[in-house]
Amino acid sequence: MTIFDAHCDVLSKLLEHPQLDFVHEQDLLDVTLERMQKSGIGFQNFAVYLPEKYAGEFRYVLESIDLFHEKVLASGPIHFIRSKEDLEYTEKNDTEKNGLTGALLSLEGVDALQGNLAYVRILHHLGVRSIGITWNYANWAADGVMESRRAGLTEKGRQLIQECNRLGMILDVSHLSEKAFWELASMSVKPLIASHSNAGKICPRRRNLSDEQIGSIIRADGVIGVTFVPPFVHAEEPVTMDRLLAHIDHICSLGGRRHIGLGSDFDGIREKIIGLEHAGKYHDLVNLLQKHYSEEDVEGFICGNWYRFYLKHLPAAN
After folding, report:
1. Across the 318 residues of the chain, what is the mean pLDDT of every consecutive 10-residue run?
2. If I label 10, which of 52, 74, 249, 264 is the partner at 20 to 30 A Cα–Cα?
């Protein structure tokens, strides 16, 4: 079965260690070409996330996108998805059929855009199709979920949302403060996504979503990518894959069966779920899901729900 992972941070590792080989570097990278092919990853979203020492400098966003082209796209049969047509082309020739994987680009945290909306337009021209407004803390646009004051969008942040709406950018609420979440929900013309977040009712962490937030995403026809970050899955170690199923069960109970996807956060995490340590282990997760859910549900969770969302909300090719 084809996998669609909505979030990984391999570009951040490549930015810090440009000597790494995306094809084979299995000791230092969770996501590699070999592992993607082994697991049948048909679609992988690559986030541009700047580590703290690079944050605030737009040139490192551009360097990350250059690494995406030079290290990822150049590594093998990977197709850059910027449009509905790109998505459909990849699906027709995906890993299980003709060995092709689709790659999407997203931005995690707008710090480096420095309030300059021209940078948003440049990223759109370069193929970035979704934006997460913050990482954990505050920036010029909004407060992140770990910011103690728990404020919402700034005036510049509202201008950013308006420009994203105009461009057709998909907006990602993972890491966003709750107040900013609700303000964003009231402004966005597209459904919101949470590319890598879990259910706060199951694991009460500020990074996870409340039932009210989950319900809002579901009603708007968005998607939530359950994430593999152990502290966001279960409070006590060791964290096993069955703990992840508790989040899926809970979101299903809120009416979210068609609104659940995967958002691994591979290469952005040090701790790992037992049995799900890297991108080559998806078969074990699929086998576990098949013991608990119908084939239709499993296909939706691992690929179909994200695919349906992006097919609806990516722009048409020029």
Report:
1. 97 96 90 95 98 92 98 97 98 77 98 98 99 97 95 98 99 98 98 99 98 99 99 95 98 99 98 97 98 98 99 96
2. 249
CA 163 to chain CA centroid, Å, is 21
Q: Mind listing the domains of the chain with CATH numbers?
A: 3-313 (3.20.20.140)
| Separation of alpha carbons 236 and 311, rounded Å | 38
Q: Where are the beta strands (DSSP E) in the chain?
A: 3-8, 41-48, 78-80, 101-108, 128-132, 170-172, 193-194, 223-226, 260-262
Burial of 202-215, coded b for 16+ CB within 10 Å and e otherwise, reads: bbebebbbeeebbe
Phi, psi torsion values for 44, nearest 5 degrees: -135, 125
Provide the token pair at 82: 């910027």
Contacts of 176 (CB under 8 A, 6+ apart): 132, 133, 134, 142, 143, 144, 145, 184
Distance, in Å, from the CA atom of 305 to the CA atom of 148, rounded to the nearest integer, reads: 34
Centre a 10 Å sphere on the Cβ of residue 147 and count the other Cβ atoms it contains.
17
The span from the CA of 88 to the CA of 300, in Å, is 17
Q: What angle do CA 47, 49, 52 make, to 5 degrees?
A: 170
